[in-house]
Amino acid sequence: MVDNDPSAHHFGTTVSDLDAAVDFYTDVFGFDVAGRFEIGDENFATGVDVEGATGSFAHLDGDGAIVELVEYDPAGEDRTGLDVNDTGAKHLGVSVDDADAFYADLPDDVETLSEPQTTASGATIFFVRDPDDNLVEVIEP
Question: Do the domains at 10-73 and 91-140 have one common CATH topology?
Fold first, then answer.
């Protein structure tokens, strides 16, 4: 057997406007752009099972975790706006030192699901939506 221990590589999400998404994640969360690139060969299209697909990518440095944003051409169906309890819903979790202060400093146009809430686990959480309605959990562990 090949020694091939899996490890997490990145969290990826599809966006409709790569520049707007990069602006959101760099402005709101302070992530740095680690790289931007495009892929559009036949093997990519076959690999993602979308005929003729190309992708514009941005890799963001989330303090050791890679956040991958990708804008596809052709674009698929709009399935954004899922609630956290919908099957297939996903979210990115971002740790902060002070959830209340982070919440207070959010730009006025950032949509939140609630104010920060301290759960039975002792963590304080709240969710925001990015420009494509993707969910981002802000957590103070």
Answer: yes
CA distance 133 to 119: 24
Question: Based on C-alpha coordinates, what's the Rg of the chain?
Answer: 17
* 3-state SS class at 48: helix
Lowest-pLDDT range, 6-15, 25-34, 56-65? 6-15
CATH superfamily assigned to domain 91-140: 2,3-Dihydroxybiphenyl 1,2-Dioxygenase, domain 1 (3.10.180.10)
Rounded Cα distance between 24 and 110, Å, is 9
Tens digits of per-residue pLDDT, 52-94?
A: 999 999 999 998 899 999 999 998 888 888 888 888 889 999 9
Please list the helix, strand and coil fractions of the chain in percent, rounded to the nearest 5, in that order.
20, 35, 45
- State pTM to two decimals: 0.91
Which homologous superfamily does the CATH classification assign to the domain defined by 10-73?
A: 2,3-Dihydroxybiphenyl 1,2-Dioxygenase, domain 1 (3.10.180.10)
**Alpha helix positions (H), 1-141:** 18-29, 42-48, 99-104
| C-alpha torsion angle, residues 77, 80, 81, 84 (rounded to 10) | 120
